[in-house]
Amino acid sequence: MTSPTWTISELSKEFELTPRTIRFYEDHGILNPAREGRNRVYVSRDRTRLKLALRGKRLGLQLSEICQLIDMYEGPRDTVPQLAHYMSVLSAQRTMLEQQRQDLEETLSEIVQQQAVCETLLKEKTKG
After folding, report:
1. Running DSSP on this structure, what letter comes out for residue 2?
2. Fewest CB within a 10 Å sphere: which of 22, 47, 51, 100?
3. Proportion of the chain above pLDDT 70, given as a percent
4. Element (H, E) at 111
5. CATH dotted code for 1-63
6. Residue 35 is inside which H or E element, if any?
7. What ranges do the domains of the chain cover?
8. What is the three-class DSSP state of 6?
């Protein structure tokens, strides 16, 4: 029994990506498809690595961090150093995102205040 394979079109459709995005991940060594003539053939390893890369992207990780985590995933799993490193990456990302959220909340609050000032001024200007 042969293991499943996918074409670039099939992966594009499954993950709702453009072929160009998949080739981007190839260019950065995340995917390494076999070739059958001019066609790329992806195996389970490639599909898993793509899934992990997309998860890292959703978490807001940088490409270098994603590559590092994927490479760790392919080593012995669930080792203390791997888990500790992953925890530190997640912790740093969480801290950064919480700061961004706080910054956004402050900016939105300021916008609300400025809108209220504008509304008051507009009412005054349209009354007289």
Report:
1. P
2. 100
3. 95
4. helix 80-127
5. 1.10.1660.10
6. strand 34-36
7. 1-63, 76-128
8. strand
